[in-house]
Input
Amino acid sequence: MVQSTNTSFLITMPTKKLLIITASNGENLKLAERFINAGKKLNCSCELLDLTDPKNDLPIFNPRHNSTDNTPSNLESINSQMEDHSHWIICAPEYNGSIPPILTNTIAWLSVQGKDFRDLFNERPIAIASFSGGGCMELLLSMRIQLTHLGALVLGRQLASNKSKIAEDNSINAILNQLLKLDYPN
Output
């Protein structure tokens, strides 16, 4: 909890917990780390979820094999980590003009947990960012469509970067500030 230092009144606000999700172990991981550092400067609780970390490996989702008996053992920890954070930033590379398979697969597994496939995403404030070899606009549009379909509140501002257009600190800070102004009701 954050408390106002004004002595005439005391306002207590819940601390916003920021989860930065990366779908690559290269430039998007570096971009995610920049978001974490900027978030910490704003006194935000920040954590990284690296989908490329071997502990987060998930088998390819196949609805024929989806049952409580076949749920990957690490899916619960990924789901819990995501549930425990009010705000997310997803950093992913463009992959063949769309979302990288590791992110799509994770979303597929998460969306079949429980009775409502939108439950984890519904009304959750999410920002999207990319470092890609190309323009990454197809990726950002694809992520926006999918996350919005799942009920997320996707921030209007997004970050598109590449080797010739490196993400600027003021852009990262602006995205963080806008994202953290959004409330998550759950």
Summary: Confidence is low (pLDDT under 50) at residues 1-13. Residues 74 and 82 are 13 Å apart (CA to CA). Helices lie at 27-41, 75-83, 101-111, 137-149, 169-181. The two ends are 16 Å apart (CA to CA).
